[in-house]
Design goal:
single chain; 148 residues; mainly alpha; three-stranded antiparallel sheet; 5 helices; 3 strands; 7% strand
């Protein structure tokens, strides 16, 4: 037979494997209350996660409707940090607008074009350009080449 454990308000008691909980001095409602508290905590955490996801969806929806973007919007759109965007503006490597020398704004279309500016060619494209160069002796971009 298991030793009796008195009811304790300070700690959760695990349910005994066998025996009557009333006879052992353990209140049966504690198991129910602990389960309810655990469920409430889990529900609260789930609600927080859902609210955060809804906030993100709202930001993306608002971003789609805007033409002039703020630094936060461009950071969300590009995935770059704000400090990186400030540096790109300082180096004049990204197109931006200044409103009275104070606020920095971006045109959404210009930012999207800037993001897609440096395309990397596939191996197939490189091989076809190399084959064309071997045959014609000219590159596709400049039209100049060395005659062989």
């Amino acid at each position: 037979m298991l030793p009796l454990q008195p009811y304790s308000q300070n700690r959760l008691l695990e349910a005994p494997a066998t025996g009557d909980t009333q006879a052992r001095g353990v209140k049966p409602s504690n198991y129910h209350n602990a389960a309810i508290n655990h469920k409430k905590l889990k529900n609260m955490e789930t609600e927080k996660i859902i609210l955060a996801e809804l906030q993100t969806i709202k930001q993306y929806a608002q971003l789609g409707a805007k033409r002039a973007l703020t630094m936060d919007d461009v950071s969300l759109l590009t995935g770059l940090s704000k400090s990186r965007l400030y540096k790109l503006c300082y180096l004049k490597q990204i197109p931006y607008w200044k409103n009275n020398g104070r606020y920095t704004y971006f045109d959404k279309a210009e930012v999207e074009d800037w993001m897609l500016k440096h395309r990397v060619k596939t191996n197939d494209e490189i091989e076809s350009e190399a084959a064309a160069y071997i045959v014609t002796g000219k590159t596709a971009k400049s039209g100049k080449g060395v005659s062989v």
